[in-house]
Amino acid sequence: MNKELVFYYLADKPEYLPTVAHWYYVQWCEQSGRYTLAQITEKLRNSLSRDALPKVVIAMMGNQLVAAAELKIREMDDYPQYEHWVGGVYVDAQMRGMQIGKRLMSYMISQAKLAQIKTLYLQTEQLNGGLYRQLGFEPMFETHSTGYHVLVMKKSLGLSA
């Protein structure tokens, strides 16, 4: 298999929308009941953009979909003051341990910078910050979100006002 990791907007490869929806449903919604698979599919359909937020980026190795992530607005309703988020970071279970998540997050950070985003936020169930801490995200606080105990983190993208 070609090991080169290539990034695309889901808008350019909408045939992968059902797979990404299934990943998100199983990972975050099946047990919590937060969204149905149909609701996630519709949310992703509304994210088929290259320019406006929300937008979804997918990672491919050859013709295999291996990961996905989103740039979006106000992920957590309780914190409307935090505007730009990266979320839905998912690497196919069979492809984990290959630095794909790190490369995808680096790409997402570069996309946020291109969009002139000054601060990027995320939430993670890894309360030590895991990969995100390695990429320069700083812990802000812990909270509960849709049945999960999470750490909210931020990264300044170094853009001047």
TrEMBL record:
GO terms for molecular function: acyltransferase activity, transferring groups other than amino-acyl groups. It comes from the Bacteria. Residues 15-158 form the N-acetyltransferase domain. This is N-acetyltransferase domain-containing protein. It comes from Pseudoalteromonas luteoviolacea CPMOR-1. The lineage of its organism: Bacteria, Pseudomonadati, Pseudomonadota, Gammaproteobacteria, Alteromonadales.
